[in-house]
Amino acid sequence: MTADTIAAPRAPHETPRPRGRGRNLEKLGWLYMRISGVLLVVLIFGHLFVNLMLGEGIHGIDFAFVAGKFASPFWQWWDVLMLWLALIHGANGMRTIVNDYVTGATTRKVLVWALWIAAGFLILLGTLVVFTFDPCLGVDSSTTDWLIEKCAAG
Fold this sequence. Notes:
With 154 residues, the chain is an all-alpha fold. The protein has a single domain, classed as 3 helical TM bundles of succinate and fumarate reductases (Up-down Bundle), CATH 1.20.1300. Helix content is 67%, strand content 0%. It has 5 helices and no strands. The model has no long low-confidence stretch (mean pLDDT 83).
């Protein structure tokens, strides 16, 4: 092999299956990464624009700002969609890296399972936080007037 040639790629870890009419999970993963990537760009830049450019900008972000956003179902779903897409996108990317670089079949399976369990736990926890967020929990006289009035009325 000369210095100007590229080494042949490693052999696949598993024997390739004959192409049938079944689902191709790798193709679905590849498509998911492209589609979710485009959606994430829109969601993230929309999130940044609303939080940083409108109103008082970064100086306006405080507990009351977050409480106001989470009071709206639109922003709840926006943030949950962003959370789900980002975590699944990241876990799928890590799965690809594990499949490419981990040579032991058992180690690879353990790592992929650990990735999906961690992603599932974070998705569950994040979704619960967004949909069960209660801004009135622990409100006292030191909080903002807007929040005290809202919690007193509710």
